[in-house]
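Supplementary Note 3. Input sequence used for the single-chain structure prediction.
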Amino acid sequence: MPTTLIRNVRPLHHDATDVLVTDGVIADIATTLTPPAGATVIDGKGSLLFQGLIDGHTHMDKALIGLPWHSTKATTSITEVIANERQLRREEHIDAHQQSTRHAHAAIASGTTHIRSFADIDTEWGLNGVRGLMQTREDLRDKVHIQVVAFPQSGMLIRPGTVELLDQALAEGADVIGGLDPSAIDRDPKGHLDTIFALAEKHDVDVDIHLHEPGELGAFSFDLIAERTRVLGWQGRVTISHAFALGGVDAVRLGGLIDDLLDLKIAIMSHGPSGGRPAPPVDQLRAAGVRMLSGNDGIQDSWGPLNRPEMLLRAYLVCYRNGFRRDDQIEDVIDLITNSSAEVMGIDDYGFAVGKAADMVLIEEENHCAAVVRRPIPWLVMKSGVVTARDGAVV
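The predicted structure, written as discrete structure tokens, is reproduced below.
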């Protein structure tokens, strides 16, 4: 691999510096470095240096990027939205490989280097979604790291045959097992969670459960998830995504749930939800030391047309939803979409330090907080020492 010297860049909380990249990793960081013979030299022009941005929760297999406009239907429940989604797949013959590739290219161009993406699995679509996404993971492995989550979006126990499909997806190479609203969707919280954790144990994979259930219903599901995490020894390997219940219980109940999250190292994914949903209190969770990550969720899909696969935009929305205005709060959200998400996803070679993978994003802006607010297009994106995008276009 080439040796590259990036001159005059400004990492968060660092003075202007040079960065030497050798064999895909950061070999040196210093105020002034001399390029080795034959090295490529990139003039950073005083740009901000962000670590590679991480989208820790999205749905690449069903993005409608690049397809004709889809008018979102009026719905009154999640089950209706899911039913509409299945109908759209039937009528439009959605190609999960094509759509996840389009999604990935847009994400890479905006500075994303790592993604955790859910792939729908049901008895109607079978493994088309997860296989298409795994093909994209392979095609673009040098440009973006993708974790694939086998996800029963339409429910699991209520659709016989889904469990077997999830098992097969994990056997074929899915990285994580997903779950969904064990009480509200499957209406069998014990059976749902017993099955999800059994698959996790069988295939030795992490767990990531969508939990939209509100208030005490969601808190009850939290208790059941915590119980299984403790009994199976899955500490540090469970994520609860959305976790709306954390924004809808009283302070005493919330305190008890936070204690469990800390004790069992259960992570929370929050993306700054819209539509009046109760949101997990990011500031309180972060201050307590709860492991967290963030992500874009669905991108221009049958659920709605408004999202973009841009993690600086997501950071802005998390700040907006949580009322974060101070620089230290915005910088904490930058950590949420970089180091914190990497830790939850188990990305060991991530970080701005010698010996870590050279995943970097260069942006011309006044400072890192201003970049979150103004969101300029990165002029250079690098994955493992190789330039993957310039000026908003994938190389």
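Residues 232 and 308 are 37 Å apart (CA to CA). Residues 327-345 form the longest helix (19 residues).
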